[in-house]
Design brief:
2 copies of one chain form a homodimer. By secondary structure, chain A is of the alpha+beta class. Chain A is built from 6 helices and 5 strands. Among the domains of chain A are: 61 residues, Winged helix-like DNA-binding domain superfamily/Winged helix DNA-binding domain (Arc Repressor Mutant, subunit A, Orthogonal Bundle), CATH 1.10.10.10; 34 residues, no CATH class.
Amino acid sequence: MLKRDYEDQVCSIARTLEVVGDRWTLLIIRDVVLGHSRFDEFLDSLGIASNVLTDRLNRLVAEGVLERILYNKRPERFEYRLTKKGRELGPVLIALMQWGDRHVSDKPPRIARRRSDQSPVSVRLVAKDGSALAPGELELVPGPGARPPQPSKRKRAAPTRS
Amino acid sequence: MLKRDYEDQVCSIARTLEVVGDRWTLLIIRDVVLGHSRFDEFLDSLGIASNVLTDRLNRLVAEGVLERILYNKRPERFEYRLTKKGRELGPVLIALMQWGDRHVSDKPPRIARRRSDQSPVSVRLVAKDGSALAPGELELVPGPGARPPQPSKRKRAAPTRS
């Protein structure tokens, strides 16, 4: 598995995957967007082991992606809602869904839409002027949080011939 | 782990995660966008075990996300490039990066930009009229590829009192 501390990964993609990179985690977040909020609903929807679900929910609450709300005192029952930080994962979910609709599913199993007017929603890469990006046009370059290049840590085999 | 065939998951998010849901896989794709193309470059960049890297590269080639190109005959050496299908994962990467820049990294370690004019690139949820979506406005509803609701497969405990 990936090291948890990512010492070699000064990268917001790697850091985000450290929070949501477990597949169950993204499916739990999807379930909350679908309207599920209770432990038993997630259990039914995902077919996940309950100890694994407990662990993932606790982690998402600790990370501030979900909040846990008491809705019944006796017996004590909680429901889970997305925080603002959690709602901001929407583009990740829709980007995954859009790719799957295009490349893996025959017909879209779900439609993403805007609550207020039911307008279909899509995810787009846009440049600063708002124009859509062609897929081959994307490049990643070092930003202000980059570290200077490090020497390779991997041992290279000595050349067998000189 | 998640079942490979997702019989209960008629969902393009789950199906996409079946292809790219392993964290190494998304970091390999990130590395290709960063300009890496060779086995040793991935090994250096990721600190991944070489057998795991071989497995993930083979899988991505089999899925049509990467293509393997012979660049040297003796010894036989290959490089890896994104296919069109692979390039279309750009919005997934940038959505993950944008969330990490906002919530996990102090300063952006990398900048996403458009190759032609170096304009900064962001990912947006947009409605059909092109207007940006507020985070709480997203909803997911059944689409044409949805199955009718299935009865729960989880055994419920019989009530202890009537």
